[in-house]
Each structure stands twice: as structure tokens, then as C-alpha cells.
Amino acid sequence: MRSLIPIYLFILLVMSGRQGVSQEPQYTLSANLGNPRITQGDVGALELSAVGGEPDTVPRSIDAPGLSITYTGSQFHQDQTVEKGQIKMTLTYTYYYTIQGTKIGDYVIPPVTTNIRGQSVTSNSVKVSIVKSKLQDITPTGNRFARLDIPEGNLYENQIFPIDATIYVAGRNSINGVSEPSLKHESFVIKRFSELDLGAVDLKGTVYSTAKLPTTMFALREGDHRLGPAKFNVKIYENSRVSVPSFFTQLQIRTIETDTVRVNILPLPSGAPLSFTGGVGAFEMESSATPLELKVGDPISMDFTITGTGNFETLGAPIVRDLDPEVWKTYEAKKDIQIESDGISSGRSVFTQVLIPLKEVSEIPAFELSYFDPKVEQYIKRRTIPTPIKVAPDNAPLMSPVTSSNQNGAGNFPTSAASIPVAQFPDILHIRRAPPKWKPYTANIQTGTLLGITNSIIGIGFAGLLGFGFFKKLKQYRAEKNVEVKALTFREAAHKVRPGVDRDDFYHYALEAFTIWENENPKAPADLLKLIGDLKRKCETALYSSDVDTSSKPISALAANEFIKVLKKLPSR
User: Fold this and answer.
1) Which residue of 135, 202, 462, 484 has the fewest C-beta atoms within 10 A of its own C-beta?
2) Backbone angles phi, psi at 18, to 5 degrees
3) What is the C-alpha separation between 207 and 142, in angstroms, rounded?
């Protein structure tokens, strides 16, 4: 028996190796910038990350016209995770490079290609901007001051652009920490200051410690605006004139304000296409649809992947111009911003649009996305091609062959129709078919005077309760019969539409109120009926679409305001 133990151990090791090792490794190589904006003369950072294995070689310098990119070192990291009972090992090799540029402008760092265990991998290209240094324009206003810097050139409504808030404190290593700044403006949407870049500069012969906090913003309206000041609470080592603060140096918290800058925002030019939904930047679009074979009334899910640099928050979903409501029913598209863009680096957003064919059609119409490109200062259109589909009548079975195709155009695999199922009743355990066999049973019942009196009292009480309940129900029935049922009016229905009720109840009440108003006012103006129809579709989307939150939490005043405002202004009879 002991001689079999090594064999058992060997089998267990082999089986655990087969079960514990995850799928075959996939190798990737990606490039990332520490900051896509590098001041002229400063040094930026570039990382090449190889996941899955160590590259055979990496370049000691990367050839990019106008830039100097030099290798500085590497780091190895290993992660171990458990997914579905399997141990997954992830190896990451990171290679660091410095970037310098002498001329102001926008540059592209090309992809890097190498081999990982015999597999060729290529990194993505990245964009970097060399911006003008403003140190020569800075005049120190004391031992502590701060500045706001915005990019030069024309800025438009909804155009997202980077800004920098920089703090200057006299002395090397004088800054220990910085709080989140307070910077607000009713005409701008300002993102959170998320990073802190500490450094030092020489201004007019004095060394200042610096803390740079970059972020992005965009304007909601045109005009000449004043932005700032931004306020910071800064931890400062007082009188730190040496490289390292001494033991006796005191740490103080000081409030420092930036200067105020003027931001001139230009309006978007006239002549915007009908498909323009507010996007400003430079974007590309890809689309897909599922399913491609369905019945009338079945939903189709359209996915639009938008990539590029620009403002994804104000970018609306692609639309179809002159979509026939007699042929297609649509819902509001769901928007998912997966990677945000700062106007320089690329981002990605996915729109999911639900379409329902109301008739037999042969294709999904083309969708169009329009945006304004501030670099070329004109509107650009992106358009999909019509997607062929097969729509069967609602009462017809979908028994057409399933078609599968790959990039080479191969694949047409017909499948036979399923056989008609036979009804079965596995839940019925036993049905008696033979006559029952009765057995005699002699009851042992004891009787007496006291038992008879007790049963009589109980019977009289039970009969009294039945009689009381009968007369009460009869009285209620007669009262309800004499009451005339009154139909709900528009104003009574609109009164139930208010903030604080459960979300589903709110949209049910709003849909009911708009429907009653339509029935009471069939000859209302066409534009008003269209508005009511749009609001009813919003209610239906909120209630029946699978892409929205269906929780029963109370509706907020902000979400309810649009519906309540319209209901109050609708005339009633």
C-alpha cells in the first residue's frame, strides 16, 4: 500500500495542474503617459507595460520626430488571483522612459513592436503636447503665491480643455501637502483636481518649491468670463532654505489663493447639422446590432462605440434622421463613458440604442453622428451603413437557418427545426385507478350533558357572528350600489404626480395623467401633442426599458420637475 502513495501523489499533482492553471497566456504591450502635456524644456514620463511575459528586447530609445525619448529603467511585478476556482498568475514588466521636447506643438509617439515568448506584440501610439513655458512671465509676489494657467488659442462652448493650478513656496522642499482647491463658476463644469506633481523652479534667482494640480473643464455658455481665484490649504515647512527640512522646522498650514484669469469662450458657429447633439472634439464611430433575425415587435440592441479626443459628457447618441414612427419604435439610448478624455488624450464611450420594428423591414437605417472639431473649426459627420436584417411576421415561427460568418466570409450552417414537444406531467405522483378498499372503523365517542351544553353555547355564538357579518356585508353592498362610479379627471390624476413617491408609481401616475389629457383634448395643437407624446415615451422607457434603474426609491424633485412643470401648464376642461 505504501508503494502506491507516490503514484497517488503524482496523479493528484497532474490533476491539480490541469485544473489550477488558467487559460493559455495572452501577451499585451501598452504605452501610457504620465502627463500628456509637457512644458517646453521639462521632462515627461512614458511607460511601456508588457503583460503576460518578458519581452525579448525593448528599445533603448524611441524614434519620434521632435522628441527625445530615452530608456531609464524597468520593474517587474507579479499578481496572483483566483477566478472560478483557478489560480491565475499575471506577470507585468514595466519599462520607463523620459520625454523631452524643444519645440512647441503636438506629437505622436509611434507604436513599439517586440516579441514575447515567440508572439509578436505591438503597443498603442500616444499623443503628447509640448506647451510653452511660462516661467519667464512669472513675477514672484512674495514667499507664497499661486497661479492658474489655461491654454492659449480659441476656446468654444462644450470644448473640454486642461487647466493647471500651480503653488509656489520659497525654499526647496517647502511643500508637504495640498488640500483639494475650491474653484467654482456657474458657467463652467470643472473636474476634480486629482493629481499632485511636486517639483522646484528657479524664479529670479530664488528657488521655489512647486505643487502643480492639473484638471480639465468646459464652458456651458459663450462670453468673456473671469475664473478664480482658487483657494488651497497648503502644509508648509517654514524657513526651509536647505535641501531637507531640519528637525526644528515647523510645519504650518497656510491658505494660498491663485490669481484670476480671463477666459474668452466663443459660441459654436451656425449651420450645425440636424444630427448634431453637442459633441465638441474629434471622434470616430463603430456600430453593431443584435439580433439580425427576429419577429415584428422584438427588440434590436444597437451598440455604438465612439472613440477620440473631446468632451464625451456633452456628446449625444447617434441618431437617424426622419425615422418613420409607423415602422420603428425607439427608446432613449443608454450612455456609458468608459474612458474620459482631457481634450488631448483619447477616450471612449458606448451608446446602447434599443429599436423595435413594427413592420417587416429588410434593414436597419443608417445612423449619423455630428460633432464640432475646434481644430479645423467646422462640423464633421460620421455615418454608419444600413444593416441588413430579417424580420418575420409576428405570428410566423422563426425557423430560418442560423447563419454564422467570420472575417473571411466562411460559414453557413443550417440547422433543422426542433421536434414538437410531448406534454408530460412529472408533478402528478400517483392517481388511483382501482376501487378503494374500505376498512370498517368503530368510533369511540363519549357523550354527556356537559358536553352537549358546551357545544350548544359555541354553536349559538358562531351563528351570531355569521349573522352580524352577513348584515354588515349587506349594508356595505347597498351603500356601494347607490354610489355612482366617477371617472378620474386630468387634474385629479396630475395631483398624484409629485416628488417623494416611489419611482415606478411616479411614472405610472404621469403616464396616466398625460393619457387622460390626450383623451380630453384630441384637437390640441400638433406641437403640444408631440411634447405630450415625448413625455409619455420617457415614462414608458423609465418603466419598461431594461437599460434603466428600476429601483423603488423615491423620485427626486429634480427628476420630477420636468413632468410637473408641463402638467401645471396644460389647460384642463
Assistant:
1) 484
2) -70, -35
3) 12
Using alpha carbons, list the distances in angstroms from residue 314 to 219, 268, 371, 390, 408. Answer: 11, 13, 10, 35, 38
Residue burial 89-121, b: 16+ Cβ < 10 Å; e: rest: eebbbebebebebeeeeebebeebebebeeeeb
- Per-residue pLDDT tens for 435-464? 555 555 554 555 556 666 766 677 676 666
Q: State the pLDDT at residue 194.
A: 67
d(CA 64, CA 97) in angstroms, rounded, equals 13
Grid coordinates belonging to 276: 448634431
**Residue 432: inside a domain, yes or no?**
no
Asked if residue 148 and residue 89 are part of one domain, the reply reads no
Pick the last residue of a domain from 392, 415, 441. Answer: 392
Domain containing residue 214: CATH number: 2.60.40
Q: How many residues does the chain have?
A: 573
Task: Copy the grid coordinates of residue 91.
Answer: 506577470
Plot region of 327 (φ>0 → left; ψ -120 to 50 → alpha; else → beta): alpha
| Total number of domains in the chain | 4
C-alpha to C-alpha distance for 316 and 332, rounded to whole angstroms = 11
Helix/strand/coil for 415: coil
> Shortest CA distance to 384 belongs to which of 370, 369, 366, 371?
366
pLDDT tens sequence across 269-304: 999 998 998 899 999 999 999 999 999 999 999 999
- CA–CA dist 510, 535 (Å, integer): 9
138-172 CB burial, b ≥16 within 10 A, e <16: beeeebbbbbbbebeeebbbbbbbbbbbbbbbbbb
Contact of 157 with 265, CB cutoff 8 Å: yes
405's CB contacts (< 8 A; 6+ apart) are 411, 412
Other Cβ atoms closer than 10 A to 261: 15
- Residue 453 contacts by C-beta under 8 Å, 6 or more apart in sequence? none
User: In which element (H, E) is residue 478 found?
Assistant: helix 449-482
Supply angle C-alpha 564, 569, 571, rounded to 5. 125
Of 191, 370, 170, 193, nearest to 276 by C-alpha is: 370
pTM for the model stands at: 0.53
Domain around 158: 135-266
Q: Assess whether 235 and 122 both reside in one domain.
A: no
| Judgement on whether residues 124 and 176 belong to the same structural domain of the protein | no
Q: Please report whether residue 460 resides in a domain.
A: no
Residue 257 and residue 303 in one domain = no
pLDDT digits 0-9 by tens, 87-133: 777 888 999 998 988 888 889 999 999 999 889 999 999 888 888 76
CATH code, domain carrying 46: 2.60.40.740
Contact 301, 283 (CB under 8 A): no
Specify whether 293 is located in the same domain as 224.
no
Q: At what angle do helices 503-520 and 557-569 cross, to 10 degrees?
A: 10
Peptide bond into 325 cis (omega under 30): no
In whole numbers, what is the pLDDT of the chain averaged over residues? 78
